[in-house]
Amino acid sequence: MTDADPTDLIHLEDPGGDRCVVRVAGREPGLRDDHDMLRAAILVHADFVDARLELHLSPRDLDAWQAGLNGLRPGTGTSLGGERGAGLAVHLQEDRSLAVTVHDPDRLSVVLWIQPPENWTDEHLERLERVRRS
């Protein structure tokens, strides 16, 4: 992955235009390949907010995101980042809508309600694999 070809790890958007995107811009090499960090940004847009928050993701973050997506059921949630600054949490409601919470301890916390397409978890697992291959 180069800085010229960013990849969306997360792209949640509803018909009203509210959206939350995690865009991976590139890698920061570690001492070993399994220590590489990904440079990313959380992009949040709604009528009341338009924000861009820096995010750094480790291979462990990606593993946790994958496990969370695979185990997601109504009434449960999963998260990405947050240990070193900004992060987001996704909670699947009983009606299959998502409560997406974006939190940056220095700036803001915001919750978006998004109605994703039915196959959104499969799509996001594919996005995760594209990021890992890049």
UniProtKB/TrEMBL annotation:
InterPro entries: DUF5959. Pfam families: DUF5959. This is Uncharacterized protein.
